[in-house]
Amino acid sequence: MGFFDRISEGLRSSRDKFKESMNVLLDRGPDLDEGFWEELEETLILSDVGGPAALDIVERLRDQATRRALPDAYAVLDLLNDEISATFTPGGDEILGGEPAAVLFVGINGTGKTTTVGKIAKEQTDRGRAVILGSADTFRAAAIEQLEVWARRADVEMVTRERGSDPASVCFDTLERAETEGCDLVLIDTAGRLHTSADLMRELEKVVNVVRKRSTLPVYTVLVIDATTGQNGLQQAQEFNRALDLDALIVTKLDGSAKGGIALAVSHELGLPIIKVGVGEGIDDLRDFDAHDFASALIGDFDERYDDEDAYEGENVKEAAITAGERRRDVIEGARANVERAAAQAQAQAQIAAAEGAAPEAPETDAEGEASAAVVGGAEAAGAAEQAGEPAEAVETSSAGEPDMEAAEAACAAEIWPDAEEAADEALAPDQEPLGGETAAEDAPEAESEDDAAKEAGQEADAQEAADEQKPPKKKHFWERWF
Fold this sequence. Notes:
Number of strands: 8
Distance between the termini: 77 Å
Strand order of the largest sheet: 3-2-4-1-5-6-7-8
Shape: elongated
Helix content: 55-70%
Structural class: alpha/beta
């Protein structure tokens, strides 16, 4: 796993929290109004970058948006990574860059000072430098033994005294030994000091002053800070800087931190460069700090900040941002248009319903009446043929020789429902004659042709319709339900 991958994995919690806040911010729309800038500043503060750093970043972005006439929030977010990386204080290359130096590592208990000293010793030895270690942590149990293990791993010499000795005397002996052996890099591990204890901070200040007076090499004081401490780390850095006049920072435990933004807060507010970051427990997991990679791991690239990554199009992030902005604008405007369209449709339907309720029912057309009469006539002819003992298929054809399709349909209905005649008789009004029986048998011979039967059926249907208009609605005949 590479350096960026380790930092990105360690800052996943910080990045997820930042992405969530940014999604909420962008849901309000892409406009660059005052509300956008205020919420962007709040989002940065909640990511532990600190109030002053967040204000500085937002002000520079606002200035860029004005000078370059940026169209929307998505164009501003394209510049966020660069602005965050530019907020870190540059420098610190001279401390471990190859020039002779004496470096003291300070910090509270448990930040990883001893481990950091051992890893730097290994790195600088591999580069061919002459390194010597000094164990000035004479109070913590096993501190000397721990540094001895790292000295053997790096194959460097270590100067120490018995436990409980004065740490300033250990520093003095280490500098003398470095001059004797011709070492060009002196790394001194100091005991952890609680920044809230004035006595302990004065004792540490004494140690640093001794080293600065005795050393012939440039002396640098580096604060090792635990990234998991969050805003408490800023308070630590302020107290140590007030007492010791710090030169640089090393941020450790970034591989398991949800508060990585504190590195930016400390670097910006105290004006201190970050020279190393710890991204794991391995001997090679202490890496040179890269501001741009750190900013990318903290906030994520543009296409990482949203769930619908596959929906983006374009050859680069800028085009993807514009595509996303247009889509979100369409959603906002489309939702409003859909509401207005639905309201207009509902109003139109209400007007149509009111107009239909007020208009009288239109009478059936002649074509509809003739069709109904033909159906009724065909059904009566089928019933008469059945009573006369003739099969239903033997329905007469028209004078033109064409088969009567309506009569055939009535015949099929008679076959499907054998008891349909009785049901139809029960459904008829008292003053109507049933279809079956002697009446149908007597009427069947009189229908010489299909036209006569259809005419008689039409007259009966008209009489039936006139009667139905004067009586309450009743059940439909079986053929009316079928056809």
